[in-house]
Specification:
- By secondary structure, this protein is α/β, with parallel strands linked by helices.
- 38% of the residues lie in helices and 20% in strands.
- It has helices spanning 27-39, 50-59, 78-84, 99-107, 120-143, 174-185, 193-200, 210-226; strands at residues 19-22, 43-46, 64-68, 90-94, 112-114, 147-151, 154-157, 162-165, 168-170, 191-192, 233-236, 240-243, 252-255.
- The strands form 3 sheets. Strands 2-1-3-4-5 form a 5-stranded parallel β-sheet, sandwiched between helices. The chain has a 5-stranded antiparallel β-sheet with strand order 9-8-7-6-13, covered by helices on one side.
- Helix 3 links the parallel strand 3 and strand 4.
- The chain is elongated and about 55 Å long.
């Protein structure tokens, strides 16, 4: 049952203020998480009502959503699928205490997963880290020159943040794109997990480094769906990842002018 405080007016807030939607099931969890996010500088809305959640996604336009493990494990809730279709919204899953729960939540495209004993203050710090990283990336993209990186059947448009294989657009998540684009920046080198984590999650990340493997494994399946005979990336055991040798047949690096909005 939603509380009276869960039903505040659906109003917009200034873009400078990070926005978070707390969709945890239990009222006490929502309240403590909402308070921690507010202290961290967020404008926050919270509810467990699905209709209100859908309305808030459109009207409040949160940059990050905090949700329960029940929505992401063992099968994806329609709410999770709705978030996945919004590339500008991050999601953090709370209450994943087992390895299966954590992997399940990550495989379904969620951006971060924490256990049930994590403090609201840590949740708030993780949310802030993700939102600030996303804002930094957008700022860099606005001033950078768009390029097409072409490796064999693979094409990456850095301006549009799009990956294509044999002309087919790949439905990559934000994190899948960011991790793979980082590999493609140094195509002839091995990129360590630590370097990938710092580049994508930031220098203050202290989660499970296995998250890199999960997201790149998901992307690898999507890529090979369009070119089953091609190996796109290679795992260097104990170190990190690099592009595979298959990518360097007829390799081209072609900068192009940035597209106008």
């Amino acid at each position: 049952m939603s509380s009276r405080n869960d039903r505040r007016p659906l109003v917009s807030v200034p873009d400078a203020t990070p926005r978070a939607l707390v969709a945890l099931a239990h009222h006490s969890d929502r309240r403590t998480t909402e308070n921690a996010l507010s202290l961290a500088g967020f404008s926050v809305r919270s509810t467990d009502d699905l209709t209100t959640i859908d309305a808030l996604l459109d009207s409040f336009e949160p940059e990050i959503v905090v949700l329960d493990t029940r929505e992401a494990h063992p099968s994806a809730d329609p709410f999770v699928e709705t978030i996945r279709r919004r590339p500008d919204v991050y999601s953090i899953v709370v209450g994943a205490d087992s390895r299966d729960q954590r992997l399940s939540a990550l495989e379904r495209g969620n951006d971060d997963v924490v256990s049930s004993d994590v403090t609201p203050e840590e949740i708030a710090l993780r949310c802030r880290s993700m939102v600030m990283r996303a804002r930094r990336h957008r700022a860099v993209e606005e001033v950078s020159t768009s390029k097409n990186l072409v490796f064999g059947p693979l094409s990456i448009d850095t301006g549009r943040r799009e990956i294509e294989v044999n002309g087919h657009l790949i439905a990559a998540t934000r994190l899948e794109y960011d991790l793979f684009a980082r590999l493609c920046e140094t195509p002839f080198e091995v990129t360590s997990r630590a370097a990938l984590i710092e580049s994508v999650w930031g220098p203050n990340w202290y989660g499970d480094t296995h998250v890199v493997d999960v997201h790149l494994s998901n992307l690898r399946r999507k890529l090979r769906h369009r070119a089953s005979d091609v190996q796109f990336m290679h795992t260097v055991r104990g170190v990190g990842f690099r592009l595979s040798d298959d990518m360097f047949a007829n390799r081209r690096l072609r900068p192009v002018a940035a597209r106008s909005a």
